[in-house]
Design goal:
The protein is an alpha/beta fold. The protein has a single domain, classed as Alpha/Beta hydrolase fold, catalytic domain (Rossmann fold, 3-Layer(aba) Sandwich), CATH 3.40.50. Helices cover 35% and strands 23% of the residues. Strands 1-2-4-3-5 form a 5-stranded mixed sheet, with helices on both faces. α1 links the parallel β3 and β4. The longest helix has 19 residues.
Length: 141
């Protein structure tokens, strides 16, 4: 079934990190998709500029084509935010996605993505998640 990017909805969410910091995220989903998968998205344009808003037009096309929703993280930018705040924001968004039943997502069918600096953040998210799961005995490296 062909889907149109104009049918992709965007809902804004505020995610609270454990340290109390707020991260804005945009949930992009297609109105007719029943996907249980999802992707956490980290925008590109370096860790010093850019925002979720820059990525939304392209993400709408991807969501329309694949039917897989995205939670795009508007991570804190340097130099105001120092590492690892950007990764902590992404981890908080991942936890938010998994813990909120309203999304209806199966965590085992979810992933992370990003372009440019966002790709580096996605790799960090995977690494930190693996380390955390290994420390809890839920993952065998």
């Amino acid at each position: 079934m062909a889907r149109s990017a104009s049918e992709v909805q965007v809902m804004e969410h505020q995610v609270t990190c454990r340290n109390g910091h707020q991260v804005r995220c945009s949930w992009l989903f297609h109105t007719t998709s029943k996907s249980k998968s999802a992707l956490i998205h980290n925008h590109g344009v370096g860790k010093t500029s850019g925002s979720v808003d820059d990525s939304i037009p392209g993400l709408k096309k991807i969501v329309a084509k694949t039917g897989v929703p995205k939670l795009s993280v508007d991570y804190s930018l340097a130099p105001t935010a120092r590492a690892p705040m950007q990764v902590i924001g992404g981890l908080s968004a991942l936890n938010y996605l998994v813990e909120n039943r309203e999304f209806g997502i199966d965590p085992k069918r979810s992933g992370v993505m990003g372009e440019s600096a966002g790709g580096g953040l996605a790799a960090c998210l995977v690494h930190w998640t693996m380390v955390r799961l290994q420390s809890m005995g839920q993952c065998k490296g």
